[in-house]
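Why do we bother with holo predictions? Because pocket geometry can differ from the apo form. Keep that in mind while you read this record for S-adenosylmethionine.
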Amino acid sequence: MGTDKSLNNIKKAKASQNQSLSFLQMEMIDNTNHKYDVIFNLFTSFGYVNHDYNLKTIKNIERQLKDDGTVIVDFMNTLFVKNNLVIEETKVIDNLSFKIERRSDGKYIYKEIKFNDKKDYFFQEKVMDLSLNDFKKYLTRYNLKVIKTFGDYNLNEFDIENSERLIMVIKKSQS
Ligand SMILES: C[S@@+](CC[C@H](N)C(=O)[O-])C[C@H]1O[C@@H](n2cnc3c(N)ncnc32)[C@H](O)[C@@H]1O
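The structure, written out:
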């Protein structure tokens, strides 16, 4: 089962649907009424709202996880992102010029995209600035524990200064 709140993303994903793979448009705090061996939260799909929503998401993950199940959360390494922030850039795609600006205010990391295609468009993406410790604090509330971290998709060790990603392998704690 794959889920996302974006109907467009789900419509696209449904092209790959088959007997053992289905997709559903839903908020990540909503319950699918199943228990899973593994739950993935991939490609920075966390931290778009606030702390309360994050806690509800983790509670929801915990209740849908089998006792010996595993959670994989793939988030950005916000320290690396902030230290390497491209403040401003322009990309030209299909003759359209996209102005991209990035900034951080300590709570969120922002990406803003402006372009003109007969009229002006403006999009803002805002993701919470969450560290490994922030995730660990959330998880202790729900009997979940980070047992391993990786820093990129080649599964190199997580290094807070140099890793692009913060990939966490999470299990229910035995205590
Ligand atoms: C950076 S994109 C990652 C792309 C997507 N997960 C993928 O695997 O291709 C973040 C995704 O998180 C989804 N998302 C953001 N907030 C969400 C929420 N509250 N509930 C469910 N999905 C959410 C967005 O719709 C978007 O598709």
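The pocket of S-adenosylmethionine is lined by residues 4-6, 9, 27-28, 42-45, 48 (CB under 6 Å).
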